[in-house]
Amino acid sequence: MSLTVARVEPSIAGVGDYIELMKPRVMSLVVFTALVGLLVAPGHVHPVIGMTALLCIAVGAGAAGALNMAYDADIDALMARTAGRPIPRGRITAGEAAGFGITLAAFSVVTLGLLVNWVAAAMLGFTILFYAVIYTMWLKRSTPQNIVIGGAAGALPPMIGWAAVTGGTAVEPILLFLIIFFWTPPHFWALSLYRTEDYARAGVPMLPVVAGDRETRRQILIYTLLLAPLGVTPWLFGYAGATYGIAAVTVGAIMIALALRVRAERGGHAACKQMFAFSILYLFLLFAMLLVDRMSGLTFGHITL
Amino acid sequence: MTTVSNPVDDFTKRFMGDPMGDPPPQPGVKLTEQQLRARRARSIAIALALGAFVIVIFLVTIVRLGGNVLTRPM
């Protein structure tokens, strides 16, 4: 029996590589939606406590990103979109990324619990665990519903922001959760339609790989038809003003129009790329309008569970 | 003329190098310039992060204590 010991070279990873591990673009969306959850919640939170909560949520999101990259290094190396990440490039080992992610996760959850409140900390811990374990380790490689169920992790930040202020949850943050939850499938499937070969090569059962191009376009339309009315519910339920309502109806209608174009498209991906790009703007505008609503003095929180 | 070796000098040269000559080769991994630069950058980042963490703890402590920060039994 022979024992092979891998020689580990001293690391050449720079600070930028570790920042890349934290998926800064995803993190920015997480921080923004959490900020909206925090600001629209009823009650007052001291700015220092609020900033601390946001910092913890940002670090927690970074931890989840690092754990995702640590586990997915093998399939990341096979896909053009992800081959440039620090682990496939050989800048950081999967073990280093896992250690980094676990450390950040522990720090962010415990700090949020000690300095803000334990309800928000428990939600953050659950979000990290859900993304790293349920989505990354289990769903991503086993079902085409991976991003549908896994989308719950990305939808939780506004609820964490709300919980940081109120110490609990309510109907309003659940609506925000549902908006992001139903936004995730059309957003990711639009992307995966023009990255199908990548996912197929890596063996990831994304919907276009498993069910085909046409079925994915049909599902995008179905989810968009569910999403657009959901986006208007904060206004319909009286949690947001008419400004928000008009904006939500307008961007919702554009989303449906784009989804119809995606559905009608044959042999190209121009509509998918448009849908993917606009979906980011859609979510940003909806949440930004909620903030504007709040800043203009209209209340958001009424019904508490 | 015969040279008598000094056992203390021999020991010193063997294990600690010749004080008048080149330093002895060090055991372990020798880092390249790039690795040293990367390690230094990481160390500075960790120091800044820990410093920021201390400041956050300090600020939140002051905020939580509020006006009571000056109230203490003498």
Q: What's the total count of β strands of chain A?
A: 0
Helix share, percent of chain B: 55-70%
Question: Nearest-angstrom radius of gyration of chain A?
Answer: 20 Å
Poorly predicted residue ranges of chain B: none
Task: Provide the succession of SSEs of chain B.
Answer: HH
Distance between the termini of chain B: 83 Å
Q: What is the CA-CA span between the terminal residues of chain A?
A: 63 Å
- Based on DSSP secondary structure assignment, what is the total number of beta strands of chain B? 0
Mean pLDDT of chain B: 80
Question: How many structural domains in the coordinates of chain A?
Answer: 2
Describe this structure in words.
The complex is a heterodimer of chains A (305) and B (74). Chain A has 305 residues and is mainly α. Chain A has two domains: 153 residues, Orthogonal Bundle (Tetracycline Repressor, domain 2), CATH 1.10.357.140; 136 residues. Chain A contains 14 helices and no strands. Chain A starts with 14 loop residues before the first helix and ends in a 10-residue tail after the last helix. Chain B has a domain of 33 residues. The longest helix of chain B has 33 residues. Chain B starts with 6 loop residues before the first helix and ends in a 9-residue tail after the last helix. Classes of the chains: A mainly alpha (305), B mainly alpha (74).
Properties at a glance:
heterodimer, A: 305 residues, mainly alpha, Tetracycline Repressor, domain 2, 14 helices, B: 74 residues
What would you say about this model in short?
The complex is a heterodimer of chains A (305) and B (74). With 305 residues, chain A is mainly alpha-helical. Chain A has helices at residues 15-21, 24-40, 47-71, 73-76, 94-115, 118-139, 146-155, 157-166, 171-193, 196-202, 207-210, 213-236, 242-264, 270-295.
